[in-house]
Amino acid sequence: RCLRVRGRVGAAGLAAGGAARCGQGGRQSRAGVVGPCAAGCKAGYTVRNDDGGMCIAIRQTWADLGPTEGHYDYTALEYEVANASAAGKVVLLRILTQIGKPAWVTTAISAAGGSFFHFDTGGVTSTSPVFWEPIYLEKKKAMIAALGAHFAQNPTVNVVAVNFVNANGED
């Protein structure tokens, strides 16, 4: 079983004492909500040694990780990884790169004359770069490399997951 830390995870959330609202019985942590992600998990899990889980998945948006190009804020991720490590867990880091991409990525693509697609979800029109857009891929690869370099020597982090193609979700 793997638990999931959900919600906005970022330095501003830490400074505010938590940036996510509790939902479905989850408990608020300093950087998000700890909740179930596998069948059989109970709502309201907190990271502890006796919950029966072996791992914890921690999600953060690319916008919170890299609010400006080339500058990364690992504060919230490091905080949650340390909590998981103290509880004897291994970690899967998951960076939300489509719905959570920073505005500076879209600006860079627009400035270079890049391609976008538009889609409607429940009456709301959204715009995203096409998945093969060279500027988008360049910026995304740089973020992945920085994240990998930062956590490469951390034995608690077993997997770093970044989605590739999805318009309005991260799976």
The end-to-end distance, rounded to whole angstroms, is: 18 Å
| Strand line-up of the largest beta sheet | 2-3-1-4-5-8
Order of helices and strands: EHEEEHHEHEEHE
**Average pLDDT over all residues:** 73
Enumerate the spans where pLDDT stays under 50 for 5 or more consecutive residues: 1-50
* Number of helices, counting only DSSP H or I runs of 4 residues or more: 5
Shape: elongated
Structural class: alpha/beta
Helix content: 25-40%
Relative strand content: 15-25%
Largest sheet: 6 strands, mixed
Radius of gyration: 17 Å
Number of strands: 8
Ordered list of secondary-structure elements with their pairings:
Blueprint: E1 2-6, H1 11-15, E2 27-28, E3 33-35, E4 55-61, H2 62-65, H3 75-86, E5 90-96, H4 103-111, E6 116-121, E7 124-129, H5 134-151, E8 157-162
Keywords, please?
171 residues; alpha/beta; six-stranded mixed sheet; two-stranded antiparallel ribbon
Would you mind describing this structure in some detail?
The protein has 171 residues and is α/β, with parallel strands linked by helices. The protein has helices spanning 11-15, 62-65, 75-86, 103-111, 134-151; strands spanning 2-6, 27-28, 33-35, 55-61, 90-96, 116-121, 124-129, 157-162. The strands form 2 sheets. The chain has a 6-stranded mixed sheet. A two-stranded antiparallel sheet has the order 6-7. A hairpin with a 4-residue loop joins strand 2 (27-28) and strand 3 (33-35). The chain is elongated and about 45 Å long. The model is unreliable at 1-50 (pLDDT under 50).
